């Protein structure tokens, strides 16, 4: 049974999958999460609703996987030899325009997730937890290199610090996050909090 399900799921080519994800995000920007329906996705992408459910299970999984697929940032595969280099490289993976569009979508999804347990679960399982695992790997390397003390109390708050920068930039400054802002924030706040080298 599992082999049959896997065979069915593998029919969608990577190019087609990317096209579907792009269409989902376009719809999400147009109507928001609550008004987005699988019927609308099927119509926009000329897919059958049955295919969408078979491949993704439901709207929360489809939307979050679309976000993850189209998110060029992150730390996967990054190892520059220093924590500062790794974090700056992470920031450089998204240009300012993409960063603004993605942060707008994430803010909207986070708000929608408060009233939708299925979306909250999908966000945690498919987006937040994989990102946390990547951060933990990067932090472990920094500890192993001697850049951060193993008992540094700020270690468990690294993701909170970085997410806080995104949220505060919009709320306090009424500006989108940018590469320059995040690099400055990393050097002025994150690295000093960790006791890591800033140059």
What can you tell me about this protein's structure?
This protein starts with a helix and ends in a 5-residue tail after the last helix. It is elongated and about 55 Å long. It is mostly helical and 199 residues long. The chain contains ten helices and no strands. Helix content is 71%, strand content 0%. Helix 2 crosses helix 3 (38-45) and helix 6 runs antiparallel to helix 10. The protein has helices at residues 2-9, 14-31, 38-45, 49-56, 59-69, 83-92, 96-113, 117-144, 158-173, 179-194. It folds into two domains: 2-59, Orthogonal Bundle (Arc Repressor Mutant, subunit A); 71-194, Tetracycline Repressor, domain 2.
SSE order and pairing:
Elements: H1 2-9, H2 14-31, H3 38-45, H4 49-56, H5 59-69, H6 83-92, H7 96-113, H8 117-144, H9 158-173, H10 179-194
Helix pairs in contact: 2-3, 2-5, 5-8, 6-10, 7-8, 9-10
Offer a concise description of the structure.
By secondary structure, this protein is an all-alpha fold. The protein has helices at residues 2-9, 14-31, 38-45, 49-56, 59-69, 83-92, 96-113, 117-144, 158-173, 179-194. The chain has 10 helices and no strands.
């Amino acid at each position: 049974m599992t082999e049959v399900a896997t065979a069915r799921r593998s029919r969608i080519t990577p190019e087609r999958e990317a096209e579907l994800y792009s269409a989902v995000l376009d719809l999400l920007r147009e109507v928001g999460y609550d008004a987005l329906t699988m019927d609308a996705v099927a119509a926009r992408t000329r897919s059958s609703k049955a295919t969408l459910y078979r491949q993704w299970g439901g709207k929360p999984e489809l939307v979050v996987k679309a976000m993850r697929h189209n998110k060029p940032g992150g730390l996967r595969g990054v190892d520059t030899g220093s924590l500062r280099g790794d974090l700056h490289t992470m920031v450089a993976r998204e240009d300012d325009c993409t960063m603004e569009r993605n942060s707008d979508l994430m803010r909207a999804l986070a708000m929608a997730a408060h009233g939708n347990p299925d979306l909250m679960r999908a966000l945690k399982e498919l987006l937040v937890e994989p990102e946390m695992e990547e951060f933990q790997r990067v932090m472990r390397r920094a500890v192993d290199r001697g850049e951060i003390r193993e008992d540094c109390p700020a270690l468990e708050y690294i993701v909170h610090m970085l997410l806080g920068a995104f949220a505060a930039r919009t709320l306090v400054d009424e500006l989108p996050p940018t590469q320059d802002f995040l690099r400055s924030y990393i050097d002025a706040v994150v690295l000093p909090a960790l006791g890591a080298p800033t140059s």
